[in-house]
Amino acid sequence: MRYRKVAYLTGVVAVLVVFFSRCFHGSTGGSNDFRGPQYAGSQACVSCHQAVVNSYSHNNHFKTSSPVEAGSLKRMTGGAEGPVFFLDSTRLRIEERNHSLYQRLAPGGRAGKFDIAFGSDVHAQTYGYWKAGRLYQLPLTWFNPLSAWVNSPGFPASHARFDRAITSRCFECHASYVKRDFEQSAPLAVNEVLDSGSIIYGIDCERCHGPALEHVRFHQENPTVEAATFITRISTLTRQQKLDLCSTCHSGNDREARRSIFGFVPGDTLAHFYYPGFGEPVAEPDVHGQQLQMLRLSKCFKGSELTCFTCHSVHNDGGVVAVAVAQCVNCHQGSAHAVAIMKETEQRKRDFNLTSTTCIDCHMPLVTSKTIILNNGAGSKTIPYPLRTHKIAIYP
Question: Which end of the chain is less enclosed by CB atoms within 10 A, N or C?
């Protein structure tokens, strides 16, 4: 009798646990996010923020990594197959097998499958293939300005490389999460192993706004409350916090990290994620990936409260130049030079329907990156990779 009573009570407790668990996770959205139970996943944002989600789905941040779909890639590249030749008399071309695309080397036949794309394709897009839990960069990169396949950044013209590992550090700027483990590769060495099933592609809502499950649950249970609760609003951050948020990806990867940048949430201090560089020479920042360092060198930055969000609307890539020019004019409206340029622009548009040179064209010109170095293989021709500098200045 005693055991029957214990069994009965145990059953009642189990039913109550299941019931309240469903109440807690069901209608307010449970989380299966790899980042942890406090994350909701971007799909949870759709029901309340449909317009923002639709806009952001076309944003370069959102598209900065993705699984490769053969049909989409063929449409983007116009079906271009190469080949690209190398100095060792080999050649690489793109081929399709079983509805998947591969980069195949001839002679020899070595091939790597297009598994993951990195980059939004505005400038370029490079690719990775999986092998035994590790991700490696494919030899060829799509370079949009030339509409052609080129040797991947930093790869030699002498031969095709298949052995450059893509690490979790790459994902920290090109994705929202990837789980990593380590396996011993030698007595005193380990290899990083990535979980392909854990990848959260692109920069998602919670990468910039922080964990959102509590926010989602609150507003599902309190639909009449319009003020955003339990979520980070960018407008509430200090200037330095805004800069730190963007700096997670736009201040380079040449510092030694103390812990994964995936752990950064808005409002954190980014310096706490890196070891201090005592006595290290400060290299000249590059236009690729070090926009914050370049912006800090600008007189405009030093003399104002300028942040990335002054010119960039992250939810929408469109109209950046127009917004930036408006900000320039807002501060320099007393400048005779600025007034003359504005009048010239208006006249050219009115009389000839032509666009004129803007503040951005002259004071934030396109500059060739010194870190992204492309070539065309056997031709040994260096291909410039121009990006807009964020050092606002007077240039010759």
Answer: C
Q: Which of 190, 200, 193, 204 is nearest to 166 (CA)?
A: 193
Amino acid identity of 56? Y
CB 200 within 8 A of CB 175: yes
126, two tokens: 């490079």
Q: Which carries the bigger pLDDT value, residue 51 or residue 320?
A: 51
Cβ-proximal residues to 115 (8 Å cutoff; 6+ apart), any chain: 67, 68, 127, 128, 129, 130, 135, 196
pLDDT at res. 20 = 36
Enumerate long-range contacts of 325-332, CB under 8 Å, 24 or more apart. Answer: 325/358, 325/359, 325/360, 328/359, 328/360, 328/363, 329/359, 331/300, 331/304
pLDDT in tens, 295-311: 999 999 999 999 999 99
Size of the chain in residues: 396
Which amino acid is residue 41, in one-letter code?
G
Residues 6+ apart with CB under 8 A from 120: 60, 61, 63, 64
For the stretch 199-216, pLDDT in tens is 999 999 999 999 999 999
319 in the Ramachandran plot: left (φ > 0), alpha (ψ -120 to 50) or beta? left
- One-letter amino acid for residue 236 of the chain: T
CA separation for the pair 203, 193 (Å, rounded): 22
Round to whole Å and give the CA distance between 152 and 156. 9
pLDDT band at residue 16 using 50, 70 and 90 as cut-offs: very low
Neighbours of 375 (CB within 10 A): 19
| Mean pLDDT calculated for residue range 203-231 | 96
Single-letter code of the amino acid located at 200: I
Residue 280 has a pLDDT of 65
Of 35-49, 85-99, 193-207, 343-357, which gets the smallest average pLDDT?
343-357
Q: At what angle do helices 336-352 and 320-332 cross, to 10 degrees?
A: 140
Backbone φ and ψ for 165, nearest 5 degrees, come out as -75, 140
Contacts of 370 (CB under 8 A, 6+ apart): 286
Residue 48 identity (one-letter amino acid): C
Q: How far apart are CA 135 and CA 90, in angstroms?
A: 23
